[in-house]
Write a sequence for this structure.
């Protein structure tokens, strides 16, 4: 399901569809697809690496070394 969504997004972006309204609608669509087709655990395992990297790249967040 997500693969199809991504393929469609690539197609539209490559063909010049860059409106703010389009991007907001597609963000809502992605959110709905994730809620409908994926468990909480699957979403966490998908997003954890990205969110972890964003967290550690944020200079405003104090980090402790382990």
């Amino acid at each position: 399901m997500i693969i199809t969504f991504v393929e469609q997004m690539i197609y539209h972006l490559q063909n010049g569809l860059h409106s703010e309204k389009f991007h907001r609608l597609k963000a809502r669509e992605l959110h709905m697809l994730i809620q409908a087709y994926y468990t909480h655990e699957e979403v966490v395992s998908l997003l954890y690496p990205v969110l972890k990297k964003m967290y550690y790249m944020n200079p405003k967040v104090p980090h402790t070394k382990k």
User: Anything to note?
Assistant: The mean pLDDT is 88.
